[in-house]
Amino acid sequence: MEKSISLSFRHRVVIEENLTDQENYIELPEEDASPMTFFQMFFSKDIVRDIVEQTNFYSVRETGKSIKLTENEFNDFLAIHIIMGIVEMPSYLDYWSQKFRYDNVAEIMPLKRYQPIRRYLHFIDNNHDNGDRYYKIRPILEKVRQNCLKLQRRENKFSIDEMMIAYKGGKYGKRKKYIKDKPNKWGFKNYVRAGVSDTIYDFVMYGGEDTFRHHSFTEEESTLGFGAQVVLALCQSIHRKPATVYCDNFSSSLEIFYILRENYGVFALGTIRNNSLRGAEKLFPEKRK
Fold first, then answer.
1. Model pLDDT, residue 183
2. What residues does 165 pair with on adjacent strands?
3. Which residues, listed in sequence order, are joined to residue 245 by a DSSP beta bridge?
């Protein structure tokens, strides 16, 4: 007969809900809403307005005159690129060529108009380089992130994991990563916090040692590994507590679970590596089913 053991677990959580920004929350549309409605919840009109402004500004800076891009034209340009991602051709010129002409693209916008938009497309003034690896797209990333945060009012159970933003181009150096087990193996690594509804509520783009440029940690939290800091960064924006997060062994440790429970009011559940148990396995019987 195996010897029984008694284990105790002390529960103490900080239960609070940040209600200061309630007016900024938005509700998800009905399931039968149009794809455009869902798309604009994340890629909102203010993002389009900023891109148009920065693109026109950059064209003036480069040529001395504006290409006079409008918001409607940019929406057409964006639609073209979405279609190009589905119907692929060797060169973007092929969509307008006599031999391979694809009307679903060619009839949206003439090639002579498409090319200058493609040439001068910009998201930020280049003079604002602050060392951020993603500074050229940071304003857009942050606005998309804020739109994600506005949707998180009702859920309090989340999964934290990495996902790939697919990209096979030859530029962007070390920012492009390869993960063999992902559906999209090449691309930009992005850590996300998603709810049971499959909605992404927050994300952190991987940037090496610069990943947490826009996050702050306590002295104790700063001693934890990279995976644990990913979880902390994504839990800092959870407003409805107590909450529960689920993560894999890349992020799991006894220390991070303790800090989440004690300081964040967040419970955590995840797989854990043997070398992260800190001797806790000795509390259990040697023979385990």
1. 75
2. 188
3. 158, 268
